[in-house]
Design goal:
By secondary structure, this protein is an alpha+beta fold. The chain has 15 helices and 17 strands. The strands form 4 sheets. Strands 1, 5, 6, 7, 8, 11, 14, 15, 16 and 17 form a 10-stranded mixed beta sheet that branches. It has a 3-stranded antiparallel beta sheet with strand order 2-3-4. The protein is flat.
Length: 754
Amino acid sequence: MVGAMANNGRIRSAFPVTNGSKDLTPNSAPASTTGSEYGPVEFTREDVETLLNERIKYKSKFNYKERCENMMDYIKRLRLCIRWFQELELDYAFEQEKLKNALELNEKHCTDMEVSLKNKEEELNMIIEELRKNFESVQVQLAREQTEKLAANDSLGKEKEARISVEKAQAGLTEELGKAQGDLQTANQRIQSVNDMYKLLQEYNSSLQLYNSKLQGDLDEAHETIKRGEKERTAIIENIGNLKGQFSALQDQLAASKASQEDIMKQKGELVNEISSLKVELQQVKDDRDRHLVEVKTLQTEATKYNDFKDTITELETTCSSQSTQIRQLQDRLVSSERRLQVSDLSTFEKMNEYEDQKQSIIDLKSRVEEAELKLVEGEKLRKKLHNTILELKGNIRVFCRVRPLLPGENNGDEGKTISYPTSLEALGRGIDLMQNAQKHAFTFDKVFAPTASQEDVFTEISQLVQSALDGYKVCIFAYGQTGSGKTYTMMGRPGNPEEKGLIPRCLEQIFETRQSLRSQGWKYELQVSMLEIYNETIRDLLSTNKEAVRTDNGVSPQKHAIKHDASGNTHVAELTILDVKSSREVSFLLDHAARNRSVGKTQMNEQSSRSHFVFTLRISGVNESTEQQVQGVLNLIDLAGSERLSKSGSTGDRLKETQAINKSLSSLGDVIFALAKKEDHVPFRNSKLTYLLQPCLGGDAKTLMFVNIAPESSSTGESLCSLRFAARVNACEIGTPRRQTNIKPLENRLSLG
């Protein structure tokens, strides 16, 4: 209880404000009691925990007066605790101000010492100079005395005494000079140490500023690159639209040219037929003319004999002249037809040339469209890479949203009313809108998959994240959503249908293929697999060969699988089966074995509802024989049990207990996410087995991705809105920058669970 004190009147010392910080004792930060209703009190950790965990007991739950009084008393104690924390914070601020003032005084004192040391150094230099002059004068005097000694033997005794005195004076001066030099050296050393410390502080400050500016520059450059990529993407999309318009226009022109060419060819055929008929008629006319000429000649020869036939000859000549006129007309018609045929041949040739030009233009446009689409794909890849890099720098949890298709028997018109997808450039492929009670709720995630998205499309988006596990990172991918929203289908797929394989089989195929391709670069990998489920807050080993150890009648595993985290952020589950695998076929067999052992049940919302949280873990250890570099990666793929409402699922008996356990663990997961989003000091990972197992993924140095699965029917709008809000809160969490696990030490036989 707040304000608890010992019977002898002694006050218990306050508990530390945060774990690992200095203890706050009454001597270091005395608590103020101004305005307190309970006198001078202080709080310990036990007091505060007791206060926060206190559950108010009532004699009768209908006695509202008693409940109000107890609640008011509880609120007063909370206020007293908050006021004590505020006063403690003020004391800390005052102590910080005192330390700042002391630091300024020390700096000023250091400056004064530097000035005094410089002055003293100058004085010592002057003294040394004077001593040197005195020494020189003494040497001159000694030489003079020696000369006088040699010159005058009678003053030998005096000279000896003078010499002794001079030597004593010289020794004293030498000693004083040594002391002065020692003092000067000591002062220089102190000055040098102060200067070195000052330089180190300046270098540390400048390095921090450079590192900060570099990070800011990298972030700005990444943002600029993304903006540039978005602009280029917009321009490419516009160019593609224009090219598609030109392509369709050229196709229309080509179709028109083909139609006109067909008409010209038909006209040409008609003209050829007409010319043929005219040639036949002309030949007939020529034959008739020749026959008539022969007849005329015959008649002329006979006319000489028979003058009576003049009239007949005249008629024949008239007929012959009329036939000659017809022949000339037919020849004119033949010449005009031949001219028309030449003109049609020329137009046909021009149309053929135009057709070839348009065909070449269409080929060029197709190549430009393919090039533009390739640039668009590359730009999208670059945008995703930069976006992932920014998220990794921020340390955010990435979130993908997937909407499952409507199932047979569901209302096909509800999706259009309930769920829609924005078409703006900023939200294209990343936004989702949910309508509830005529109110629109908009959400934006890292990627949104419509019901038409295939399993291959989903896996393509996460393939680079899976690759990170081979590069030595911890990777965690988990599916969240209400029951029946498609989580197990996303993670496991549909058995027996290769086109609908889930993320887990596809991840394993990619890892084994990449492992094989990296052999040429000197890399060798060892892979280990474990699978477990959390059923009713109990961990079950799904790879255990002992069926009794996997599942018992009362839902409690005989083996106690304790969860432990080491200092490196790795997770160990006691007595968990870990198997070495060599191929994806072995892992597929183990997955089928685990699926048969997993807990499933039937509810009103789902025929085969997962009643437990499924955790698949792949540990990867690799070593490069040429560089002796070692990497240790972990891939966690998790299929969470679906949240459900008892009013809709109709669970009873064992299903009811399972539903309560599932909802409790998911609620604990929500509490952890809420604490991480608010950056609270205490994150309640230990509230459930699920959150404690996921602690390295949610609060460590792993790359984490969450799939939020949504059901499209209108009856699930409430649950879908809750799932989307939870996903948005997860997307805003910052868990730290991912760290690659590499070293050059020899590999051990077993790896810890990441």
